[in-house]
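Quick one, T. Sequence first:
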Amino acid sequence: MTARPLLLSRCRHCHNRYLPRPGPCPRCSSADLTPVSISPKGAVRASTAIEVPAAGWTPPHPLCLVELAEGTWVLAVGPIPTLPVGAEVAVERDEAIYRATPWTDGSTRALGRGEGDSPSAGPRQRSFEPPR
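Structure tokens:
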């Protein structure tokens, strides 16, 4: 699958990477930001289908939480049926919405930790730090 790279913002002060949004860095409030292109390939960490979605969305509304290879997480609209935890996906930005589709390069290796893996398998998970 030849998906386009995703664009992140990278803070030159604290090196935080996050999905682009207006304003300063959510971690340190620095305005010294630079765009960074990353691979759109990631792994599903959770998925669900909302049966009673917000106005404008048709049920069932599939969502999946995707961990990109560089460690950034994104909530994306997924396909129906919902994707299993550990499934490899490509994430694409469609205006303000991120969409996840199955990765189809023939690879069956999951990225990072999947359901049932031991904690020592895969990359080390970073702890959650809320924006300041």
